[in-house]
Amino acid sequence: MKKLSLFFMALITVLVIAACGSKSADSDAKSDSKKEETVSIKHKSDTSEVPKNPKKVVVFNFGMLDTLDELGLSDRVVGLPKQNLPSYLKQYKDSKYESVGGLKEPDFEKIAELEPDLIIIEGRQSEQYDEFKKIAPTIDIQLDQKNYMESFKENTESIGKIFGKEDAVKDALAKIDDQVEKVNKLAKDKGGKGLVVLTSDKQISAYGSGSRFGLIHDVLGVAPADQNIEASLHGQSVSSEYISEKNPDYLFVIDRSAAIGEKGSAKEVIENDIVKSTNAYKNGHITYLDPGYWYLSGGGLESVSEMTKEIENGLK
Where is region (Disordered) located (predicted)? Predict the structure, then answer.
C-alpha cells in the first residue's frame, strides 16, 4: 500500500511538472507570436519595427491621414494636430480625436498620455524624431519631390503593409495611375506651357520641375514655362513682370495665406494689369488650386487623386 501511494505521488509530481512545462511553452509561444506581429518599415529617419495592425495611431502627416481615411482606418486615429487642418479632413476636428499640439510644436506630454502604438510624422517634425520614438514606434513619411510618384507609392504601400491593406492600396494606386496617364495625354494634346506660383500675402514664388509642386511638370506632363527655376522648398521669388515675361499658357496658383487660416488674397495679387497680358489670363486658364491638398497635405490617396483632377480641369 505504501509503495502504491509513493507511485501515485510520483505520478502526480510528473504531471505537475509536465503541466508547468506546457504552460511555459505556451507562454514562450505567445511571446514569440507577439514578437512576430511587427513589420519593418524603412523611412526617412530610420528603419523601424512597427506593430502589425496598430489600434492607436497619432498622425502628424496629413497626407497619411487622408490615406488612412481612404482605407477605412479612421477609427485607429487617436490624435493629430488640429491647427491648420485641411478643410477636406475637417471630420478630424471632432472631439473624439485628441489635439496633440502644432505641426512644428508637438505636445509630447499629450502624445504620451494617449499611449499610441504608432506615430506617423513628416518633414516638419523630422528634427524631433528621437523624442517621438521614445514614446512609441515612429515612422517619418516624406515625399521625394524629385521622385514624387515613386515615393508616394512606397509611402502608401508601407501603410498598406502595416495595416494589412495591401490589396486595397494596389487597387487605389492603379486608379491614380490611370488618372495620371489621362492627364499626360491631355497635356500633350493641348500643348502650351504652364507656370506654378505660390502667393503669401503679397509675395509671389515660382516653382518648377523637381520642386514641392513639380509633379505638375514631372508627373502630369505640363511643359514648364521656365525650365531654369531652381528647385527649392520656398520657391524662387518672382514678380508680376516675371509672369508676364514668361507668358504661360496655363497659370496654377496656390494661396499659402488661405492654407494657414489667414484671409486669402491670391486672386487680388495675381490678376493685375500686368498678368492680364498673359495667354493664361486671356484664355481663362488661371487655376487657383486647393491649398489644403497642395500646401498642407499632398502625398495621400485622396489628395493625389484630387490634385490630378484639378490639373486636368485646368487644362481643359
Answer: 24-51
